[in-house]
Amino acid sequence: MYRPLSIKPLPTLFGLAGGLVLILGILATASIAEKKGDRVYTFNDEDELLQPLYWDIPSNWREWVYVGTPLTPNELNNGKASFPEFHSVYIHPDHFKVWKRTGAFPDGTIMVKEMTSVGSKQAVSGSGYFMGEYLGLEATIKDSKRFKDEPGFWAYFSWTREGKPRAKTTKAEPAGKCNICHQSFAKDDWVFTQYYPVLRAAKPGR
Amino acid sequence: MYRPLSIKPLPTLFGLAGGLVLILGILATASIAEKKGDRVYTFNDEDELLQPLYWDIPSNWREWVYVGTPLTPNELNNGKASFPEFHSVYIHPDHFKVWKRTGAFPDGTIMVKEMTSVGSKQAVSGSGYFMGEYLGLEATIKDSKRFKDEPGFWAYFSWTREGKPRAKTTKAEPAGKCNICHQSFAKDDWVFTQYYPVLRAAKPGR
Fold it and tell me: What is the pLDDT of residue B163?
């Protein structure tokens, strides 16, 4: 028997609500998946940190929030700076969001530092320092569970391998190599905000 | 008369579909609103470009994709560099996405350059140049409709006002002031990619 289709108001309303719940559910699941227990980064079973492009949910640090670029040219550091040439520093956007709201770096914060050579010292805009090629890649993570024994819960990493391609994974550096300088000289919670105008300007109450 | 609620399969299905269409419609509208005819930026009736924070849909350039930081210290430029000190350059994420896919800057591309003083020349990491305070803010836009008479369709803007706060709006600079150097010396479509490793590395086919 043929019956013309009829839209019943009440069941339709239920359906609409159902559709909404369905979509919200999908969005919520995606958001939870992205958080992975509040940690964006991935360590392997050997406690090595993977480069962000290889995380469970891969991320490109060059699209994170840029915070500043100290420059320590080799020529001004007896030919061998601790951090060669330009250091572009980035913070993960999730953690920048929290910094803007609270002025604090949340547990799970990750920042990446990418080093670049001085490629040219003269351009049409004047004399100075112009970026050349990528040299190195480092990171710092604040994690009170994973690094409960590190000062301030911050650990430091380098994927740079001199004369070789960057490593895909790397172990935390000993506290004496990196943490001690951050602990002693960094202005805000182990982070050198004194050299990072983006972070200073975004800090609430400033 | 009391009737127990009953979920009718067919109307419920219609409702679910309706809910889905409703949500997709909202998302599509939001996406279109964000594009504003493929232009993210806002000009006022006097053809002045607003700072991104004042656009119809405000945007914070410090959260765009960072492409590089040339440094032309005043001391290396007779005390007065054309672009004082550090220049942090950003590209709008929509246009970076197109660059990654095509290796070209789409119509409507906007890049911002923010200038920062050298704040310190010595830090625990070595001798060099460390960012101080914000000095200036500039932008470039490629727009074949609005700037059909500019070489390459690129126009250049500065919100910097010496000794005064940054302007909220600003007119395009004459082609002879900015465009001519970009046209003559920039490697890729009026953009100095030779100094921007992020753009070089993201260019397809490299």
Answer: 87
